[in-house]
Amino acid sequence: MDAESHPVCRAAAGGVAACPPVVEYSTEFQAQAAEELAMLPDGSAIVEMMGDYLVMRDQVRACG
């Protein structure tokens, strides 16, 4: 999805909303998070939520 077709970005272009900043995490912090996620049981709701978070981060990046 390109920035112009994303609803949040369209709103930003129209002056109604702006794209939030993407928080950058250090390599070490990302490694820690990956290790912790790997310890969760199969079918964990948190793993599914993190997948959704990844999509949202990609959408925000496309917006800016």
Walk me through this protein's architecture.
The chain is mainly alpha-helical. It is 59% helix and 0% strand. It contains three helices and no strands. The longest helix is centred in the last third of the chain and has 19 residues, at 45-63. The chain is flat. It starts with 6 loop residues before the first helix and ends with a helix.
Mind sketching the topology for me?
Layout: H1 7-13, H2 27-38, H3 45-63
Please outline the major beta sheet.
none
Helix-strand pattern: HHH
Strand content: under 5%
How many E-type strands?
0
Low-confidence parts, pLDDT < 50 over ≥5 residues?
none
Whole-number average pLDDT?
Answer: 82
Tell me the span between the first and last alpha carbons.
Answer: 13 Å
Gross geometry: flat
Helix vs. strand class: mainly alpha
Radius of gyration: 15 Å
Number of helices: 3
Helix amount, in percent? 55-70%
Briefly summarize what is shown.
The protein has 64 residues and is an all-alpha fold. It contains three helices and no strands.
Name the features.
single chain; 64 residues; mainly alpha; 3 helices; flat
